[in-house]
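Box S1 | Example of a co-folding query
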Amino acid sequence: MKTLKFLTTVILASIFIYACGSKEQSSNESETDKQTSEKKEVPESIKMGKGVGEFTEVEVSDPLNEEWVARGEAIYDMKCSACHKLTDQKVVGPGFQGVTNRRKPEWIMNMITNVDVMLAEDPTAQKLLEECMTRMPNQNIKPDDARKILEFFRKNDMEKVGKKDEAIKS
Ligand code: HEC
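Box S1 (continued) | Returned holo structure for heme C
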């Protein structure tokens, strides 16, 4: 009985110490985060309108790769259509019409694969967040699939607007 009491005390004490320890650690972390973000310069990729993430150079070409378009459309139907229409109508997120004319391919693909960092660092993404008032959730899209979604957006823009990829020129 005594041992049991002792054991319970030890367990309780260690939970208490652990809880305090982790709290302290996390407040230290946020302190260093604050310091680094104050010093951080705006990354070149953001200045170039490419956002932040693994995509720094994306090649687009003609004619469209119809296989990619089909795969992109299937992913859109499954994972994006609840929040995004293919017209200019906003639902939860902006309509995709004209998206390749207003955003560079790298920006689009970084937004799809790296949304949390984009919302934390990219001013264009942050402006959308202000307008939509909902955070786009991470959809766990693989890099290859992001390229296929982009191809589908290019096709959609040809159909809806008659031009695509205009943002690359700016
Ligand atoms: C739960 C709703 C939701 C889902 C699902 C969703 N998004 Fe979004 N998306 C948003 C919101 C909201 C924004 C605006 C930014 C913000 O507020 O986070 C956005 C913004 C975007 C943008 C920028 C649009 C522009 O006009 O610049 C792209 C591109 C995008 N999403 C792609 C996708 C793709 C691709 C999928 C599916 C794989 C997807 N989203 C799934 C809510 C969603």
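The pocket of heme C is lined by residues 75, 79-80, 82-84, 92-94, 99, 103, 108, 111-112, 119, 125, 128-129, 132, 134-137, 139, 141, 149 (CB under 6 Å). Confidence is low (pLDDT under 50) at residues 15-27.
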